[in-house]
Write a structure and sequence with these properties.
Number of strands: 6
Strand content: 5-15%
Helix content: 25-40%
Mean pLDDT: 97
Structural class: alpha/beta
Length: 222
């Protein structure tokens, strides 16, 4: 298993569980016989780039982008040089409206991950050009367990839930010690139904500061 730093000990029970071993067997077959995203070496980037000790925010996505060169293990993020998907463009529009951050040249959100934002998809893999194709392979159990782990083992974390899939995870989160921010998905199909104007970036930072934590530098152009 790859080295995930201070996540190793926390995730070890999940990786030893028969349900994870079933996912692993499924993935070996998928990667051997189909085009699957992200690259297997990027699969756990959300944990690699956001050490548990630094975690302040959980941003939940659904499943990875399914076109070539996009996904690299961080929800909503694309690799440098790749055109931004429409949802990501809308995220940047809201970021500019909320905090005045200029639109970045790249849709790579690694800086956010380094700032303490766990960019977690509810399914970590997808078959090329087939959205949600791995949604029922067992990832839901794994990522639900991660959400519950973060809820149980951290204090004053912000959980950002955009869209129905993410919002369905609310019961896993202890609202007595964490903040949940929820609204419509940034997809063009729903962004005007409550995503635009949600001000989740500024609300996240206000909450973090109120609880003695350093706010997230959301500006990707710096």
């Amino acid at each position: 298993m790859v080295d995930l730093g201070d996540w190793n000990e926390r995730l070890a029970p999940l990786f030893a569980d028969e349900r994870y071993l079933k996912i692993r067997r499924f993935l070996i077959d998928e990667y051997n016989n189909h085009v699957v995203y992200p690259d297997m070496y990027d699969l756990y980037n959300c944990f690699k780039f956001t050490p548990f000790a630094n975690l302040k925010v959980v941003l939940l996505g659904q499943d990875p982008y399914h076109n070539e060169g996009q996904a690299h293990g961080l929800c909503f993020s694309v690799q440098d040089g790749v055109q931004n998907p429409p949802s990501l463009e809308n995220i940047f529009k809201e970021l500019q409206s909320d905090l005045g951050c200029p639109r970045p040249n790249s849709g790579n959100l690694t800086k956010w991950a380094n700032e303490g934002v766990l960019l977690l998809n509810t399914a970590l893999t997808v078959r090329a050009h087939q959205a949600n194709s791995h949604a029922k392979c067992g990832w839901a159990w794994f990522t639900d367990s991660v959400i519950k782990l973060v809820s149980d083992q951290t204090e004053n974390t912000v959980f950002i839930l955009w869209g129905g899939n993410a919002r369905s995870k609310k019961p896993l989160i202890d609202t007595n010690k964490h903040l949940i921010l929820e609204c419509a998905h940034p997809s063009p199909l729903s962004a005007y139904a409550g995503f635009f104007g949600c001000k989740h970036f500024s609300k996240t930072n206000a909450y973090l500061q109120a609880h003695g934590k350093t706010p997230i530098d959301w500006d990707l152009t710096k």
